[in-house]
Amino acid sequence: MKFTGTKNYVSTEDLSMAVNATIALERPLIIKGEPGTGKTLLAIEVAESLGMELIEWHVKSTTKASQGLYEYDAVTRLRDSQLGDERVKDIKNYIKKGKLWDAFESDKQVVLLIDEIDKADIEFPNDLLQELDRMEFYCYETGETIKAKKRPLIIITSNNEKELPDAFLRRCFFHYIQFPDRPTMEGIVKVHYPKIKKALVKDALDLFFDVRKIPGMKKKPSTSELIDWLKLLMSDELPDEILKNADTSKAIPPLYGALLKNEQDVQLLERLAFMSRREQTK
Amino acid sequence: MLINLFHTVRSSGVPCTLRELLDLLGALEKNLAFADMEDFYFLSRTILVKDEKNYDKFDRAFEIYFKGIETLEDIFEALIPEDWLRKAFEKELDPEELKKIQSLGGLEKLLEEFKKRLEEQKERHEGGNKWVGTNGTSPFGNNGQNPEGVRVGGEGGQKKAVKVWEQRQFQNLDDSVEIGTRNIKVALRRLRKFARQSTDYELDMDGTIKSTARNAGILDINMIPERTNHVKVLIFFDVGGSMDPYIKLCEELFSALKTEFKHLKYFYFHNCVYESVWEDNRRRTQERFLVQDIINKYSADYKVIFVGDATMAPYEITNAGGSIEHWNEEPGGATIKRLCSHFDRVAWLNPVPDDHWDYTSSLCIIRELMDNRMFPLTLKGLEEGMSELSK
């Protein structure tokens, strides 16, 4: 069982190795990287290529670790007791299983994605130490221990908003998705738009890397933005010359809205273009 | 079993533990990277390194390790200043051993020799009596029998080696002093005071049972607001001058405070708090806030934290007109006293190490003004300070 990327996802060699180590040793894998470099997508593609089911747990600032295990719905039980419902006698009817429970219970090995773990409270990772280490937890209400039938493949993504505790990191593998270099990027574009004209890709990539190189950018455009931008360029069928002549120092790129997500960045680019035009007219 | 690689990586500053090494060995056992240097590099990086900021250190260690042992000398030199080692050496030697060292021509010679042999030696070595390795009688290496030997890495079997190079006790000391944002945040958690004031509701179990019972068994559900952190904090930061060496520490403290507390107000002062403070360092002259206004505006249940080194001329605290920047009608000490008497809980965090405190008279004066509620800006001090504030 080896992961080497899929037809929809270009995986670099180091990323594949990280995933394969995770598969072999059944440890959780922490994925970090710039926004838009395909962290979440990785879990989806790994699940698909290995033919496993994917269970997604999206973490928010209000998410508690216990919600991933289970929640006890006391209100419904109280109401049912009033109505004389038969179900009330069994407390199991009121335990809502969380994502981890689902993953542990599954007969087949699954991929569990814990998305954006850094969004949660600072103690959140610590509350999951035992659960991720031993892949089991105890349910107080029913008095049973839930143990993973097959250790799930856990992929955790983080945007580095909060530092993760050491004890947590020790139990995981780590990989930082680097921003793809040009050949990788070409590969990624090819995967997404196989029919795109070669010249267009070349010009667009030139422009894209130029824009990324501008210092002082608040949010540099990333892979997902490039893909969106190309989609726009293709649907718009711009004449080839526009891209070719679009030197970032002279004019802002066409359809820049897909690339730049920040007003200040657009202004920065406009200012630079204005300054270089003035230089030329002198 | 890769223990040398592990030590090289660790000594280059990447924090990894035995657990990771065992993981790596486990991965190798499963044939994840077989006879391919690059695969092995990716694999070991995934397992040993847990933060991208350490990738570079790891790369350098990896390069050094596989380039061959001859370059080790450079890192020894780069990482351990020689005079530290010599001092540590001399401390650890008893007179008898010192005498024995002379048998090899003195400490200097011993170190020299060590470097020379490292240079000559290209491969791992065990036994024998000359090369650096394990279980031999050479003066260098591990588990050996030579009393004047230098132990290189690992546990000593004979308790005789003069020095464990790679244990790097100096670095360990550094680690314990270091306080990162996360540590600060964890310490600040002590100050959390949960109050039920939010808009999110949760089931009040006790209340529901009680009111249901009162209702003759007809269910009556009670909800209460969820508990959220409700502590209110007011901070005064000393900026400029003598605080410059502590900028990084203060920045870390500040960023931790900002994410931890929703009700946080901060002001700046220079050296000592006088009748007014400011909120924005760029407009410190135009936009000032009177301390009296702050006292009137913020209720006594605000927790007040001063952050400063309290190091200045004593008259800057005790005398009217003592400020070095302007004419103050009232001594700074009086302002501090007023703040302390208005607010129930105050603490002063001082980045100066606490064993230096007694040598600065202004520091002693401030400490007295604060009724001894001054704490060093280390993890331990921070925790003490927070428990003082949350009493």
Short summary:
The complex is a heterodimer of chains A (282) and B (391). With 282 residues, chain A is an alpha/beta fold.
Summary keywords:
heterodimer; A: 282 residues; alpha/beta; Rossmann fold; 5-stranded parallel beta sheet; two-stranded antiparallel ribbon; 45% helix; elongated; B: 391 residues; two-stranded parallel sheet; 17 helices; 11 strands; 44% helix
Termini separation of chain B: 52 Å
What is the architecture of the largest domain in chain A at the second tier of CATH?
3-Layer(aba) Sandwich
Task: Enumerate how many helices of chain B there are, as a single number.
Answer: 17
CATH topological fold name of the largest domain in chain B: Rossmann fold
The tally of structural domains of chain A comes to: 2
Determine the structural class of chain B based on helices, strands and strand pairing: alpha/beta
Look at the structure and give the mean pLDDT of chain B: 72
Distance from first to last alpha carbon of chain A: 64 Å
Characterise this structure.
The complex is a heterodimer of chains A (282) and B (391). Chain A has helices spanning 13-25, 39-50, 65-69, 74-83, 99-105, 124-127, 129-134, 166-170, 182-192, 198-213, 223-236, 240-245, 263-281; strands spanning 29-33, 53-58, 70-72, 95-97, 110-115, 136-139, 144-147, 153-158, 173-177. Chain A has 282 residues and is an alpha/beta fold. Chain A folds into two domains: 13-177, Rossmann fold (3-Layer(aba) Sandwich), CATH 3.40.50; 182-281. In chain A, a hairpin with a 4-residue loop joins β6 and β7. Chain B folds into three domains: 3-67, no CATH class; 76-172, no CATH class; 231-389, 3-Layer(aba) Sandwich (Rossmann fold), CATH 3.40.50. In chain B, the strands form four sheets. A five-stranded parallel sheet of chain B has the order 6-5-9-10-11, covered by helices on one side. A two-stranded parallel ribbon of chain B has the order 1-2. In chain B, strands 3-4 form a two-stranded antiparallel sheet. In chain B, α12 links the parallel β5 (232-238) and β6. With 391 residues, chain B is of the alpha/beta class. At the A-B interface, α1, β1, α4, α8 and β9 of A face α2, α3, α10 and α11 of B.
